[in-house]
Design a protein that fits this description.
Chain A is an alpha/beta fold. Classes of the chains: A alpha/beta (about 500), B mainly alpha (about 400). Chains A and B meet through strand 10 and helix 4 of A and helix 8 and strand 3 of B.
């Protein structure tokens, strides 16, 4: 009887002590993240390795040596070819406006193929094609970007050393299905690795430092950022919705198992740039992005805060965009190791903390509305503004390996017959009307010349020769593949008005 | 390729006679042309007629995809969603209305006066002149490729071709008409009631504002320019651009100049609002632009990013035509962030307005590249007469600056 009373009394004391010692007024819920339910809300992807589909046949190999032009090799290359660049220094802008090119630096005894912009050239490597691999280069002293993709799908950018070069180190934009891994990027005045308006992205095993932003996922969906080391930047890892961009959302981002430490470098971003508003000392920053999971990171010694989650109103220098949802919804914070963050924070965070009577270190601060956010083991962290975070219904993301697309993003497939109509109406009709002369001869005249001979017409449009005085010379339609050339020839020979 | 036919010989002679008069006295009101107009039953070039008598756009960019189907990207990227599905008759009626000054209150201004096909569907002026000689606040945007737009007017205040068409018709500063007057004027022209019947056979009330606006939208949606030298390069002809143009493309898409970040291919606009801080014409106050549309101070001086297709045809440049040449317009971006913003004025400039320090050669190459975005191969035919008989712009290819 007596013992029983003591036990009950001890529990009351313990519970009472905890309640009065806590600002959350709830007993701690201790959740093991070993085993347990895994996140099920993300992109459903099949298991895949890499982002660029494997080649069924080996193409030609083009060797580029110091003194040669890499661009000349790109121009000579056919889709399916590989360009190997020997160690040495090359000062040029390389642009790849064709598909399926592997641009590979050769590393010999540690010496790399170095692209040196000499402080004068704009970008080192631009690509717009699909199925592009860029690896093993050293890139330095460009004014623009190190490696920049514009709408190429299925890309792999790996094992590049990018030092002191312009705005972004690696910047794939408007692409689907890309892998950025094993790069070392430093001294960048915006983001070392910047994923802009892209889908299905994997950023892993990179070291990013001495830059304004380490890794930035902006207006992109289905991205995993893992096993990176982001240190000594102004901000370590960011997931943003930037208003005013034409693609409006950032969703489904997993930031896990990264080192995010000592990101206290004074902000040296260009005036007016989005990152120029990031306070030095930011570990992970989530702005207006939805469905972001933060798990398994070691986040240490970031003086403003370990993790900042905020809405657009917390960033007074960004534009207004009615189509852009300003709030960070469904942030999910799983187990992270957080140490000594927020030791010298900014007045804005101090002010928010004071509303909760919080002083001192800040591991996690959430500013602005948040719907559906959750956390586990919240008692471990020094937190501000997460009072409405509920307990997550899962403890890990173990069931998700990658958001990359098995087999790669597929090109649109249009049947040849339809391609014939598209090319005829989209191109030919500008110069050829059915009856009468427009710029070229009438379709009726052409039909009479090539009756029963579509291949002859296809051959002509591939490489036209001047046939008629007083008619301008026809431009070659050799950008159409042979199948489409034949399809458009067949189509033209059968139209009846 | 006449899209309408004047039926009998007598009226054809009468027509020629009136036409001659019109040329001689180009702003003198004339009687309606005699004769019957027949609307085209074929689609304009680049459109296929489907089984429902609707014109469907075909272009090579339909071979490609784009991220999130937004029509933004690089070379082989699909265009944004477009408007089509109008009938050949609606498009052709729209063409006649477009060139017909009877649409304006004083019957002096047609759509084509400010959107002249010979001037890139703009008017060659810094700021357009509307009814009673009023100088408007802004320049006339090109209409090429407006089928692909979701946002209309410099200040981004309209969201469909129809909504856009209403604006100038009934703005006191532009065509200055009223719905009642417009319907009355069109009903007085002998040909129009019958033409509206042809174009809108299923309508109860054929000559109605909605149908006028539909026809104008139909015509505008047919103004397609996608066969420039740049397009041939994009589709895979590596030789389609000259070395200078290619150099210009690489400056254009570089992250130093950053042009393509807002003038994004393949439409060469991302259709967003940007505050770039160009100077107003001397003596004029700041045009607040989109700040009014969105009631947002942060957007003061913000304007819709315009397409650059056929940009070489539409000097002068910027919302109030401040820059006479493409070279000057390009140079604006390299003179320093906010260099033209008067001291004491605060504008929240776009983050891509930076300090790229482009060289003179790079500026020249940018101009070369923008010239490679010209294509007028699907130019619609300017009618040799309109139903009211009031046609007031030249139909000759060389003219256009007569205004």
């Amino acid at each position: 009887m007596n013992n029983k009373f003591k036990v009950v009394f001890a529990i009351v004391i313990f519970a009472g002590g905890w309640i009065f010692g806590s600002s959350n007024n709830v007993a701690p819920v201790i959740t093991s993240s070993v085993g347990g339910a895994s996140y099920e809300g993300g992109f459903q992807s099949e298991v895949t390795v890499g982002a660029v589909p494997h080649r069924s046949a080996a193409g030609s190999i083009h060797i580029v040596s110091p003194g040669d032009s890499i661009q000349a090799a790109v121009e000579a290359a056919q889709p399916g070819d590989t360009i190997q660049v020997m160690p040495g220094t090359y000062s040029e802008t390389v642009y790849i406006d064709k598909d399926d090119i592997h641009l590979v630096g050769v590393i010999q005894n540690g010496a790399r193929a170095t692209l040196d912009g000499l402080g004068k050239l704009n970008d080192a490597i631009l690509y717009s094609g699909n199925n592009i691999i860029i690896e093993n280069f050293r890139i330095t002293q460009y004014k623009g970007n190190g490696i920049m993709g514009q709408a190429g799908n299925n890309f792999e950018i790996r094992n590049n050393i990018i030092v002191d070069t312009g705005i972004y180190g690696i910047f794939p934009q408007l692409g689907t299905n890309g892998l950025v891994e094993h790069n070392v990027v430093s001294g960048i005045e915006d983001a070392a690795i910047y994923i802009g308006m892209s889908d299905n992205i994997h950023v892993a095993y990179n070291e990013v430092f001495d830059s304004v932003a380490g890794i930035e996922i902006e207006n992109s969906r289905h991205a995993i950022v893992e096993h990176n080391n982001a240190h000594h930047n102004t901000g370590g890892i960011l997931a943003f919705v930037t208003p005013g961009l034409p693609i409006k959302t950032t969703e489904d981002v997993i930031i896990r198992n990264n080192f995010v430490s000592n990101n206290n470098t004074p902000n040296f971003g260009a005036p007016g740039s989005i990152v120029s508003g990031i306070p030095a000392g930011t570990g992970i920053l989530v702005m207006a992005a939805d469905d972001v999971i933060i798990e398994g990171n070691i986040i240490t010694n970031n003086k403003t805060a370990g993790i900042i989650i905020n809405d657009h109103s917390f960033a007074p220098t960004i534009t207004m965009d009615v189509q852009s949802d300003p709030n960070a919804d469904r942030t999910m914070i799983l187990d992270n190791v957080m140490l000594n963050n927020g030791y010298d924070t900014i007045p804005e965070v101090v002010a928010v903390a004071l509303t909760e009577l919080h002083t001192g270190l800040v591991d996690i601060v959430h500013v602005g509305p948040s719907n559906g956010s959750c956390i586990i083991n919240r008692h471990r962290y020094r937190t501000v503004g997460i009072g409405d975070y509920r307990e997550c219904g899962f403890t890990n993301t173990d069931s998700i390996d990658s958001y990359l697309l098995a087999g790669g993003a597929q090109p649109r497939v249009i049947a040849p017959a339809e391609r014939g109509e598209i090319a005829y109406l989209g191109v030919c009709a500008g110069c050829h009307s059915y009856t009468g002369r427009l710029i070229g001869p009438s379709v009726q005249v052409i039909q009479a010349m090539y009756a029963g001979n579509p291949q002859g017409l296809a051959t002509y449009i591939n490489a036209p020769i001047k046939k008629r005085e007083n008619f301008p010379e026809m431009p070659a339609q050799n950008y159409l593949d042979p199948e489409t050339q034949l399809a458009v020839a067949k189509y033209m020979l059968q139209v009846s008005n | 390729m006449m899209r309408y036919i004047i039926n009998n010989k007598a009226s054809r002679n009468a027509f020629s006679c009136i036409f001659a008069t019109l040329i001689a006295l180009s702003f003198t009101p004339v009687q309606s042309a005699e004769g019957t107009f027949t609307l085209a039953d074929k689609c304009p070039a680049s459109f296929a007629l489907d089984n429902n008598n609707q014109c469907r756009l075909r272009n090579l960019y339909q071979l490609y995809d784009s991220l999130q189907d937004r029509g933004l990207g690089g070379l082989k990227t699909a265009l944004p969603e477009h408007r089509d599905g109008f009938s050949p008759q609606q498009i052709d009626l729209g063409r006649l209305l477009f060139f017909d000054p009877v649409l304006s209150a004083d019957k002096n201004l047609s759509c084509a006066n400010c959107h002249n096909p010979k001037l890139g569907f703009s008017d060659g002026m810094d700021r357009s002149v509307g009814a009673r000689g009023q100088v408007s606040q802004r320049s006339a945007p090109t209409l090429w490729n407006s089928a692909f737009l979701k946002v209309f007017f410099w200040d981004a205040r309209a969201h469909s071709l129809e909504e856009q068409a209403i604006g100038p018709l009934f703005s006191d500063k532009e065509m200055a008409n009223t719905p009642e007057q417009l319907l009355a004027n069109l009903n007085e022209v002998e040909a129009y009631p019958e033409l509206f019947e042809q174009a809108f056979p299923d309508s109860q009330d054929t000559l109605a504002i909605d149908n006028i606006v539909t026809a104008l939208s139909a015509f505008q949606s047919s103004l397609i320019s996608l066969n420039s030298a740049y397009d041939r390069y994009a589709h895979g002809d590596a030789k389609a651009l000259s070395p200078h143009e290619l150099e210009g493309l690489n400056v254009f898409r570089s992250f130093v100049a950053r042009c393509s970040q807002c003038h994004t291919p393949p439409l060469f606009t991302n259709q967003q609002v940007a505050v770039i801080g160009t100077p107003e014409p001397t003596g004029l106050p700041r045009d607040i632009g989109a700040a009014e549309t969105f009631n947002a101070k942060r957007l003061t001086g913000g304007f819709k990013v315009p397409t650059l297709r056929n940009i070489a045809r539409t000097a002068p440049y910027m919302h109030s035509g401040r820059f006479a040449t493409l070279r000057e317009a390009a140079e604006f971006y390299t003179k320093g962030r906010g260099h033209a913003v008067p001291e004491g004025e605060e504008l929240l400039l776009h983050w891509h307005i930076s300090d790229p320090k482009l060289t003179d050669t790079e500026l020249d190459r940018l101009v070369d590249f923008m010239g490679a975005l010209s294509d007028e191969s699907f130019m619609p035919e300017t009618p040799s007469q309109v139903p009211s008989g009031l046609l007031n712009i030249s139909t000759s290819l060389s003219a256009g600056l007569e205004k």
